[in-house]
Design brief:
- There is one protein chain.
- A hairpin with a 2-residue loop joins strand 1 and strand 2.
- Helix 3 packs parallel to helix 8, helix 5 runs parallel beside helix 6 and helix 5 runs antiparallel to helix 8.
- The strands form two sheets. The chain has a two-stranded antiparallel sheet with strand order 1-2. The chain has a two-stranded antiparallel sheet with strand order 3-4.
- The model has no long low-confidence stretch (mean pLDDT 88).
- The longest helix is centred in the C-terminal third of the chain and has 26 residues.
- With 252 residues, it is mainly alpha-helical.
- The chain has eight helices and four strands.
- The chain has a domain of 164 residues: dinb family like domain (Four Helix Bundle (Hemerythrin (Met), subunit A)).
């Protein structure tokens, strides 16, 4: 194991680095920024945290002997009751949940599109811009519903995948610079695609298992129900709306 002792590396940047199994002792991480990080089975002891903000998918997080995940989920659902419907297994309830998401997004879209175009391309604290977020949600729908459920074999090149995925793997164009009108039109089309699918889906359709074509690139080639794939889309929509509202507020 490579060992670093008494090193001073303020402002260092680590990208595409494997630190699995690394040990950090007497390390100063004040002001550090983490994004697209895998931290499964991590143990933190003797750690001082003050003013820390975490936006994270939580599963099995334990803080001082307390399972935090359940507390976080309960508080989120107290503040946002619509979240309960996002993981429903009933086709009728999922239609209602999707309609609620569309209703939630509508005023945010109007407010965002009333801003100067430059604002829609700003990355607040390194996060995706408003337009990039819409492009990512396009990709999420095209992959999890289009490829995963409906058997589609291609994606819109202006979509954006997760930063950990090479865009070429799905035929995306990493240099694409679409206009606001192009992005909004494609976004509206994919939103309608989910709405139309749910409008015609039966409970049996949701429970049907499918495996996407391996050549498509995403989602993972594994058998999953349509329901589980829709849950991914609904979850993405809810969280990214939250991020958009947060970032637009900072721009204001």
């Amino acid at each position: 194991m490579t060992r670093f002792e008494s090193q001073r590396m303020p402002g260092a940047e680590f990208r595409d680095v494997d630190l699995s199994g690394a040990v950090f002792h007497d390390v100063n991480l004040t002001g550090a920024r983490f994004s697209e990080i895998e931290m499964s089975d991590v143990r933190l002891r003797g750690v001082h945290m003050d003013g820390v903000t975490i936006e994270v998918y939580v599963d099995g997080l334990v803080v001082n002997g307390i399972v935090v995940q359940e507390l976080v989920e309960a508080e989120l659902e107290r503040r946002h009751p619509e979240r309960v419907g996002l993981r429903s297994k009933d086709v009728g309830e999922l239609r209602v949940a999707w309609a609620a998401l569309e209703e939630m997004w509508a005023p945010t879209m109007r407010a965002a599109l009333a801003r100067p175009e430059a604002d829609l391309r700003v990355r607040v604290e390194g996060e995706w811009s408003f337009l990039e977020t819409l492009r990512h949600l396009v990709f999420a729908t095209e992959s999890w519903l289009g490829a995963g459920v409906l058997g589609a074999t291609s994606f819109s090149p202006i979509g954006i995948a997760g930063e950990w995925m090479p865009p070429e793997a799905c035929g995306l164009d990493p240099d694409a610079d679409p206009s606001v009108q192009e992005v909004v039109a494609l976004r509206e089309a994919t939103v309608a695609r989910v709405r139309d699918y749910l409008a015609g889906a039966t409970q049996a359709d949701l429970e049907a298992i499918s495996t996407p074509d391996a050549s498509v690139g995403w989602p993972p080639v594994e058998p999953r129900t349509a329901l589980s794939r829709l849950h991914v889309i609904l979850n993405e929509e809810w969280w990214h709306h939250r991020y958009v509202v947060r970032d637009l507020a900072q721009l204001s």
